[in-house]
Amino acid sequence: MISALTYTLYQNVFTEKSRVQTGDQAPDFVLEDMSGNKVQLSDFKGKGVFLNFWGTWCKPCEEEMPYMERQYSHYKNLGVEILAVNIAESDVAIEAFIKKHDLTFTILKDKDRAVTEAYDITPIPTTFLIDKNGKIEKVITGSMTERDVANYMELIKP
Q1: What is the pLDDT of residue 77?
Q2: What is the DSSP secondary-structure string of 9-38?
Q3: In this predicted model, what pLDDT tens digit does every residue of 59-88 receive, in sequence order?
Q4: Which helix (H) or strand (E) holds 7?
Q5: pLDDT at position 19, please?
Q6: Are 60 and 138 in contact (CB under 8 A)?
Q7: Do 116 and 124 form a contact (C-beta atoms < 8 A)?
Q8: Is 1 helix (H, G, I), strand (E, B) or coil?
């Protein structure tokens, strides 16, 4: 037990977690969408991906969702996809949120927080702008205006 405790302390104190950042290749993942389909990030190669981590209880997340929806209606035809990753909430809560805001972009469920942890998400909302080659162009923490969303989608448009 002492050796396990020592190892844990060593890992937490002396090894540095590498945070996903601008210039990195976006870590690939597979999550389920609201219909139970498996969605893999790498399947979107060739498109810009607006990868947003959010929660239904997060007020800034709720404020930016209509902006994302309006811009998505324009940019989806220009090769930009939105993948909105909900962090560990129930299907009922997510469905109610989708319906309330008439969202049409892809909502993914990170039930066990594995992708959230892989991307080292703190705080939410956090958005990763991923180019057509899978490279992270920008990381945005905190809320965005509609102009921000439009400018960011323009940045990753293939």
Answers
A1: 97
A2: HHHHHHSPPPPP-TTSBPPP-EEEETTS-E
A3: 999 999 999 999 999 999 999 999 999 999
A4: helix 2-14
A5: 80
A6: no
A7: no
A8: coil
Residue type present at position 72 = Y
Q: How far is residue 78's CA from residue 157's CA, in Å, rounded to a whole number?
A: 7
Query: Alpha-carbon distance 57 to 89, whole Å?
Result: 10
Average pLDDT score, the chain: 91
In 10-158, DSSP assigns E strands to 30-33, 38-40, 48-54, 80-87, 106-110, 126-130, 136-141
Strand bridging mode 48-54 / 38-40 = unpaired
Q: What is the C-alpha to C-alpha distance for residues 157 and 87, in angstroms, rounded to an integer?
A: 26
Backbone torsions φ then ψ of 142, nearest 5 degrees: 95, 180
What sign for the dihedral angle of Cα 64, 129, 140, 111?
Answer: positive
